[in-house]
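User: Could you walk me through two proteins back to back? I'd like the raw sequence and the C-alpha cells for each, with a short line separating them so I can tell where one ends and the next begins.

Assistant: Of course. Protein one, sequence then structure:
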Amino acid sequence: MSTPVKIKLIVSSALLALSLSSGAADIDAGKAKAGMCAGCHGVAGISANDMWPSLAGQNTAYLAKQLKAFRDGSRSDAIMNGQAKSLSDADIDNLAAYYNGLK
C-alpha cells in the first residue's frame, strides 16, 4: 500500500471514530422538535406549498449546515432566522437526522 493511500486510510478512520464518539443524533427528539417546522414544511416533511422546501429525505449534513447558517445569520430568511435562533447544536443534529430518515 502506498503512503498516500495509508494516510487517507488513517485520516478516514480517525474521522469515523470522531463522528462515532460524538454521539448519535436522537431521532425521537428531532421528531418532537419538528412540530415547529410542520406548519411550512409539512407534518411528514413534505411541503404542500412550493414556497417552502420539503425536508423529508434530505441529506443530514446539508440540513444541519443550512439550519446553522439560518441560526448564525449567514443565510437570511426572516422566518427561518427566527425559528433557528432557539435551536442548539443537538437540536439541529436531531432535526437533520429525523428529516433525513423520512421518505
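----
Protein two, same layout:
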Amino acid sequence: MTILQFREHFQGAFTNMLRWPQLRQLWTVVQNSPEGWYIYCVGQELPTQPVQVAELQRFIQEIDELLHREHEHDYCGIVYADNPEAPQMVKIFDPNNLGVVCGPSKGTVLPGWILSRIPPQSLDNPGILPENRKRWWQRLFPS
C-alpha cells in the first residue's frame, strides 16, 4: 500500500459505533482476525510492523476500558470503522480531545488511535499528545 492509499482510505466513508454493543461486536470481529493489524497512536512514532496477536488483544482490552471509563455517556459514538463486518481501518477518538468530531469546526480533530491493516503514514498536524496519554501508550508499548 502507498501513502496515498492510507490517506485516501482514512478520508473515506466510516460507520460510527454509536452504541456500546456495536463497539463490542467490532472488537469481536477484529479479535477473530487478529493478524496484520497496525496500532498507530497519532502523534507518536509510526509503527513499522503489525502488532503481535497478544499486543492487539491487550490494546483492545485497555482502550475499551479507557473509553468506558472516560467517555461518561450511555452511548459510544467515538469509534468509527470503514466496514464493521470486515474492517480494514478503525478510528478511535480520544474522549478527552473530541473538539467537534462531526459538524463544522475550525480544524480537523484527528483520532487518538488508529487500528489499520494498511501501513499507517503520519497524519498532518497531529497536535500535542497530552502527557497522560503518552504515559498510557508507553505503558502498553514500552520502547
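The chain has a mean pLDDT of 86.

Let me know if you want the two compared in more detail.
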